[in-house]
Amino acid sequence: xxxxxxxxxxxxxxxxxxxxxxxxxxxxxxxxxxxxxxxxxxxxxxxxxxxxxxxxxxxxxxxxxxxxxxxxxxxxxxxxxxxxxxxxxxxxxxxxxxxxxxxxxxxxxxxxxxxxxxxxxxxxxxxxxxxxxxxxxxxxxxxxxxxxxxxxxxxxxxxxxxxxxxxxxxxxxxxxxxxxxxxxxxxxxxxxxxxxxxxxxxxxxxxxxxxxxxxxxxxxxxxxxxxxxxxxxxxxxxxxxxxxxxxxxxx
Length: 251
Fold this sequence. Notes:
The protein is mostly helical. The chain has helices at 3-10, 12-34, 46-65, 71-75, 77-102, 113-143, 150-177, 204-211, 213-223, 227-250, and strands at 38-39, 42-43. The chain has a two-stranded antiparallel sheet. A hairpin with a 2-residue loop joins β1 and β2 (42-43). The model has no long low-confidence stretch (mean pLDDT 94). Keywords: Membrane, Transmembrane, Transmembrane helix.
């Protein structure tokens, strides 16, 4: 069975959401080629494309890690609620970002009436997304499936927990700053595909590292299947994320 086929067997809703995000990403890339309009120095379709790519990795990783929950946890109300909330929040965030891109308007830090209201709701949606990941991580660490090797179960739990906690911390740092950068910056000066600024204290670097702990820590244990590796990778990745946040704020 191919890895993609296994995703549907492990968690069909998350697997399908990943395919939808992939189709969304491809559509944005095509539009970026056809539409010459720019926003902040890059194609108006870059931002929805980046979010769609992030959701592909997000949902397929969640589908892959789902069996680390015990069977009764998988069927329980808490996990099912997390699935529903995550799917709804991702659709809301991706839909709004794409709709604003189509109009050449900002989706984050918007100044207009509707934009400022929806931006506040986006903050709530993003918080629920990372909180859901952290909650699944805690459930795995507390009483995950005994059919999954301990090191892999530990890596899945710690990866989701680090994503949940530091994803929230770095997200709030960006929101509190009122900008993705500490100093004035433009996407036009960054390198594709991320367009980060390495001169103005770009907080998105730390947020990116935080969100992808859920892939990095299980990958480390896949390469070296030891419980100690899971703890070391979690500590190292969290430290690197925190360092990126400190460096950005010091710029």
